[in-house]
Amino acid sequence: MVLFLKKNPLKKMVGIACDAKKILLTGVVLIPQRKMMTEKVKILFNKVRSHAQLPYYAHDDDAGFDILACLHDEGRVLLLPGTTEKIPTGLASEIPPGWLVSVRPRSGLAAKNFLTIQNTPGTIDSGYRGEWFILLRNEGNSPFVVTHGTRIA
Q1: Which residues lie closer than 8 Å to 93 by C-beta, 6 or more apart?
Q2: Whole-prediction pTM value?
Q3: Which site in 12, 30, 58, 84 is 20 to 30 Å from 3, CA atoms measured?
Q4: What is the H or E stretch that residue 22 is in?
């Protein structure tokens, strides 16, 4: 799950528009002070690997969208118990100044497979322009195979 945050807590992205190469996210900022202030934000995603899949909301009411593994060239990554692997997403972004992206583990992967993100919540600052990688960690007793298109955050 990926959330977009500004300098205050409880931010939420909503709405999505995309084309074949890039994805543009627009959102509403919710500030917990008994009154709601809204502010639009635009974040541009670029595919840095040709087989990267754009992030998406699995359900209309989700607070964050899912990020998928981009392992077309690698094939798969085997996560042995107690290990962490750097999983490529094939995506880079342009985050507006003053904003950050908070990368969080998927609750389903944690509950079913004991997978988490090593540095949770991961932070991607507005100045970072490189490919996103997810540090996926296996806290379970069984190996887990990550393939191209696996929802990892």
Answers
A1: 43, 44, 45, 46, 101, 124, 128, 129, 132
A2: 0.74
A3: 84
A4: strand 22-28
